[in-house]
């Protein structure tokens, strides 16, 4: 009997056709409503699920006794209970590599936009306020030649650092559990303790995954260590930052500015003051959101689920233990 795969999210027509060659494919919409009989019927048959932002609850797992693999269309999987899946023998696959450069571009867009006040000044021009030549009140800060502090030095962190070092003559510092000698050689990057990095960097760029040990990694004490001219960039997960402490730091000249692609709550609550602040550039979690990259991520998820359900090793498997 053909195996069944549930798809939650967009696939191209060729990706859809590729899946249909091998599986019975069912499309459902997010969030999954587990009280709907058709959703429960689909889950009861499902061997695989493809989707992003998946709420993998115990109820969902109970409703899907045949589940063998989940392919999240994201590199991050902080929203997924990996240990529970491993215990149940369910493979979790993600989409690293294919989104690295695009997400690093987003990080650099935020570095440029915050330092040179791109959004604020574009809005100023749009409002017809450019009537005389501009003075120092509207000047920004240099990016070229400054110090870039990477909090987390995995694939995306390294790609941001490469842009900074090779394109913008930046001195790269990084804090990471393990040293990265190859990058030290390639970019002249230097490893620092987090506190030292915060003190020395002009730009602090966060790329660590969200885990129990990185939640609120950057809070009031950490902002106090940064330079008053320092700029915080977050392209990781919102909860790595204590947002209340960030708002306080931005309002009280503890740091200069922040460029944020991610927030503790997404979509961002309309109560959040962050997007209205002139020293904040807030984006709607677009790290990987280009046509090319989202297509490549969807393709990786399709490849992962196909391999997993055909008994082969998926390209990017998070919980290797399931295969042992
Ligand atoms: C995702 C992301 O695309 O990959 C990740 O972890 O944060 C984004 O690139 C987003 O979560 C939607 O899937």
From TrEMBL:
Protein family per UniProt: Belongs to the D-isomer specific 2-hydroxyacid dehydrogenase family.
EC id: 1.1.1.79, 1.1.1.81
Stretches assigned to the D-isomer specific 2-hydroxyacid dehydrogenase catalytic domain: 5-319
Gene3D superfamilies attached to this UniProt entry: NAD(P)-binding Rossmann-like Domain
Any one annotated GO CC term: cytosol
Molecular function GO labels: glyoxylate reductase (NADPH) activity; hydroxypyruvate reductase [NAD(P)H] activity; NAD binding
Keywords: NAD, Oxidoreductase, Pyruvate
Record's protein name: Bifunctional glyoxylate/hydroxypyruvate reductase B
One Pfam family per UniProt: 2-Hacid_dh_C
Keyword check for NAD: yes
InterPro entries per UniProt: D-isomer_2-hydroxyacid_DH (IPR050223), D-isomer_2_OHA_DH_cat_dom (IPR006139), D-isomer_DH_CS (IPR029753), D-isomer_DH_NAD-bd (IPR006140), NAD(P)-bd_dom_sf (IPR036291)
């Amino acid at each position: 009997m053909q195996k069944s795969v549930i798809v939650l999210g967009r696939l191209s027509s060729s990706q859809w056709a590729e899946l249909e060659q091998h599986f019975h494919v069912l499309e459902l919409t997010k969030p999954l409503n587990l009280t709907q009989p058709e959703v429960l019927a689909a889950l009861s048959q499902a061997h695989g699920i493809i989707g992003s932002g998946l709420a993998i609850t115990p109820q969902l797992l109970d409703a899907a006794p045949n589940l063998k693999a989940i392919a999240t269309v994201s590199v991050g999987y902080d929203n997924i209970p990996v240990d529970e899946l491993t215990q149940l023998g369910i493979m979790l696959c993600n989409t690293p590599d294919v989104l690295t450069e695009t997400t690093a571009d987003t990080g650099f867009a935020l570095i440029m936009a915050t330092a040179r006040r791109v959004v604020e000044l574009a809005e100023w021009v749009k409002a017809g306020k450019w009537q005389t030549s501009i003075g120092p009140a509207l000047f920004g800060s240099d990016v070229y030649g400054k110090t870039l502090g990477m909090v987390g030095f995995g694939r995306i962190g390294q790609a941001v650092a490469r842009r900074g070092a090779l394109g913008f003559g930046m001195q790269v510092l990084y804090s990471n559990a393990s040293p990265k000698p190859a990058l030290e050689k390639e970019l002249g990057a230097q490893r620092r303790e987090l506190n030292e990095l915060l003190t020395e960097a002009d730009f602090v760029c966060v790329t660590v995954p969200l885990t129990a040990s990185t939640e609120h990694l950057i809070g009031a004490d950490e902002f106090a260590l940064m330079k008053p001219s320092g700029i915080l960039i977050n392209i990781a997960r919102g909860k790595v930052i204590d947002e209340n402490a960030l708002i306080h730091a931005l309002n009280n000249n503890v740091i200069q500015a922040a460029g944020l692609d991610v927030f503790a709550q997404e979509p961002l609550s309309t109560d959040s003051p962050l997007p209205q602040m002139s020293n904040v550039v807030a984006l709607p979690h677009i790290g990987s959101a280009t046509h090319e990259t989202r297509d490549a991520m969807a393709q990786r998820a399709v490849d992962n689920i196909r391999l997993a359900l055909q008994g082969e090793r998926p390209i990017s498997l998070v919980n290797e233990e399931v295969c042992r």
